[in-house]
Amino acid sequence: xxxxxxxGAALSLLVILACFLPWSFIPxxxxxLTGMYTATTDFGKPGILHxxxxxxxxxxxxxxxxxxxxxxxxxxxxxxxxxxxxxxxxSMCSAGDCQQKKVGIYIVLISSIxxxxxxxxxxxxxxxx
Length: 129
Fold this sequence. Notes:
Strand order of the largest sheet: 2-1-5
Oligomer: single chain
Shape: elongated
Organism: Arachidicoccus ginsenosidivorans
Keywords: Membrane, Transmembrane, Transmembrane helix
Protein name: DUF4293 family protein
Helix content: 55-70%
Order of helices and strands: HEEHHEEEH
Transmembrane segments: 7-26, 46-64, 71-91, 103-121
């Protein structure tokens, strides 16, 4: 694709933005969780790792080197695995109390899937002999 690297860079910025959007709501605690604020749960701050991987991926999407395109597939795969883990964690039921999924967790998951697709479609100029 001609614009796969620009789309991938924009998606990495979208993942960073989505880390600050609501991911889920726990009715029993009356708490809205984001990637950076998890209230009284033991979830930590999973958005920090998403932000770190997205910053690295953004740089690798912009850098026009072959090694950066290969490394970007690895970074985006780890980001996708982390997004899937967070989606499962933030959408599970615990002790009969089910969390309500919000828009942020969907944006992170879908953007991470599209990031790895864009990482696998780099525009590489081939030198002719």
